[in-house]
């Protein structure tokens, strides 16, 4: 995985983000920090054109509405037609009928390269329902060392069904396609006390993927490890400064901006299953 | 008030926020910092369902539009039906007919547990009009030690009318119901140089209230004192670092994430009137 | 230019921002940091009224949609009728037909006091097309010491056509009307690794302009130099702290909050052409 970040910094992939208005600024800044470049556009009159000039598309349903759902569908289909990398972040799938239905409609009409969600969201996509509590994973769903095999199986099955790489993120992150599985043990529990780490990761996956198209699975693993490792480093800095969660958020983006292939290689805790 | 923050951290109240896109990220991060959990959803097709899975609802009209006003009404009525705590933040009421009219419509159709605004906004709600200058309180309205009795009377009258707890925030904060009044003298003038302190407080009130339902008035007082005291601590840190207002904003959220019932008790300046 | 910042701090100009949801929080915080005051409102039912109570209007098409385009037109015409300062930030003009068409429609129906964009956006406004890559300037367009005369000519021509002051920002910033030209060599390349510097500057120009109406050209030059110089100081601080791009973003707003006419005078690198 030596070249993945270098490729992002050299190619400056432009990522079209149709994403929620809660974490959109963090998403834009993280893409820039990584070496990519963001463009946000959600009007149906322009999304196809914007996707056309981009290297990748990330669709995040965090604050979906009737108007933007139409734009998501248009942009996704265009990206498919042009062979661009597409990432789905099904925020809160399972928490409302609208979110679940929209996630399924997106899966129906668009071929996604990667789907990233927490365990409850991914369960919803596979089973059609789950006990999603808002936008966080339900505690009864949490991936632990004990039940990780079940979650791996889920990821592989959903990958088989959708042909997408599946990233289930949480205490242990799982990145899998139908046949290959990576477990990533980076990150820190305190990261759950800031909003946007998932949204940022989904966009980062699009950037890493767009700059490493022939190596997509490794790109997704690297992006996932990068955000986790950046979170660890940020947590250390937060402690040193005797600071709180807003400092953690700032330092996380800082660390992504400072990350190199070398430093990530040193810090990433990846197991091939 | 010893247990209020501990209760929030133990119960992780999930708060449905229909709020403006200016400060929404700060609102989400502050809720997480406090021990609560945010979910933002504003489409009429899902707001009732989202409110149903939440412990509280905050409605903030800071960037209202025709689409979201409908969602506010639906969510608020649902919250009332289910007996969930509801907070109204009438941002800019008085600054446009749309805002004033919407604020009154919300008051008409929804029973709010708490209404929080600056003095100009609260005057508008009580009198039907005031000299609101944008989203900040008009200088001629400012609550000072000299005119505080008038503002207290206003809070009590509006509480009588609406059955809500009223929080008027500014240099001196007033929290009152029909019969009881608290004055809070925490905070720092520099806090007016960052956006979102009011929006954050309104959401925090929902979280504190949801985790302390049998003790709602004290919860509102604590949340108000918490943001004010966090602002004081953040201001000190800003000076130490010879930094500016963006550092103040970060440190404010930091301090809420570090706040305990013990530290708040030491720092809060609350007078019972 | 001695009094320009002091005037902003004394007059607290209220700026109506119809702007994108990506950088809106930074825009609000920067306006407050500068001594101004922001109000965001984008519903067609209230924008004229909001513009009426404000001292200036900034229109930014970064995440435009059919609903907000109508509001931009209404607000702009009202501002013209009332003689208020108006700023256009044509984010991504040239990147989609919708953006290009909307920018032209705004230019057609509204007289702008100032238009600020990167070189690709400004080329689009003048020529009707350009090679805009997303929301960043195309590398082939970049203003350098070698081609700066061409860019100056472009600015003067567009100013002649529109009667607006033109600010083309990039490695070298150009501020020009039909007859006068200023080059500003403040700023740091790392500023391109955070989102929102352009949006923030456009809003700041409205605040500086509103507080210095008889001196508009100098106000635009000062605002442009202020953001650039704040970026330089922020970059130094970032290096001292061994931090990354998110720290840069925070420090930039910090530095604007600390800026005085005296410190800006010392730091600004302005050449009159």
UniProtKB/TrEMBL annotation, chains A, B, C:
Protein name: Hydroxyethylthiazole kinase
Family: Belongs to the Thz kinase family.
Matching CDD domains: THZ_kinase (cd01170)
Reactions that this protein is recorded to catalyse: 5-(2-hydroxyethyl)-4-methylthiazole + ATP = 4-methyl-5-(2-phosphooxyethyl)-thiazole + ADP + H(+)
Binding site residues for ATP: 116, 169
Role: Catalyzes the phosphorylation of the hydroxyl group of 4-methyl-5-beta-hydroxyethylthiazole (THZ).
Entry EC number(s): 2.7.1.50
Gene that encodes it: thiM
Class in the EC hierarchy, top level: transferase
NCBIfam families attached to this UniProt entry: PRK09355.1
Coiled coil ranges: none
Cofactor needs: Mg(2+)
Pathway(s) the chain acts in: Cofactor biosynthesis; thiamine diphosphate biosynthesis; 4-methyl-5-(2-phosphoethyl)-thiazole from 5-(2-hydroxyethyl)-4-methylthiazole: step 1/1
Binding positions for substrate per the UniProt entry: 40, 196
GO molecular function: ATP binding; hydroxyethylthiazole kinase activity; magnesium ion binding
GO process annotations (BP): thiamine biosynthetic process; thiamine diphosphate biosynthetic process
Keyword line: ATP-binding, Kinase, Magnesium, Metal-binding, Nucleotide-binding, Thiamine biosynthesis, Transferase
Pfam families the record matches: HK
Residue ranges of the TM segments: none
């Amino acid at each position: 995985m030596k070249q993945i970040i270098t490729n992002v910094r050299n190619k400056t992939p432009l990522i079209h983000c149709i994403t929620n208005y809660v974490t959109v600024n963090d998403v834009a800044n993280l893409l820039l920090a990584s070496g990519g470049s963001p463009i946000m556009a959600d009007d149906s009159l322009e999304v196809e054109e914007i996707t056309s000039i981009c290297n990748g598309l990330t669709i995040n349903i965090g604050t979906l509405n009737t108007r933007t759902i139409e734009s998501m569908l248009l942009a996704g289909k265009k990206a498919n037609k042009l062979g661009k990398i597409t990432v789905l972040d099904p925020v809160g799938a399972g928490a409302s009928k609208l979110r679940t239905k929209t996630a399924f409609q997106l899966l129906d009409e668009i071929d996604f390269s990667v789907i990233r969600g927490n365990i409850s969201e991914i369960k919803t996509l596979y089973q059609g329902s789950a006990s999603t509590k808002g936008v966080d994973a339900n505690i009864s769903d949490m991936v632990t060392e004990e039940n990780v095999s079940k979650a791996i199986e889920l990821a592989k099955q959903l990958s088989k069904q959708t042909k997408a790489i599946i990233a289930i993120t949480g205490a242990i992150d799982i990145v899998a396609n139908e046949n290959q599985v990576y477990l990533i043990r980076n990150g820190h529990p305190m990261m759950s006390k800031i909003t946007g780490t998932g949204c940022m990761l989904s966009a980062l996956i699009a950037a890493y993927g767009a700059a490493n198209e022939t190596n997509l699975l490794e790109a997704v693993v690297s992006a996932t490890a990068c955000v986790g490792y950046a979170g660890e480093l940020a947590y250390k800095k937060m402690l040193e400064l005797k600071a709180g969660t807003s400092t953690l958020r700032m330092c996380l983006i800082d660390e992504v901006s400072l990350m190199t292939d070398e430093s990530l290689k040193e810090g990433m805790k990846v197991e091939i299953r």
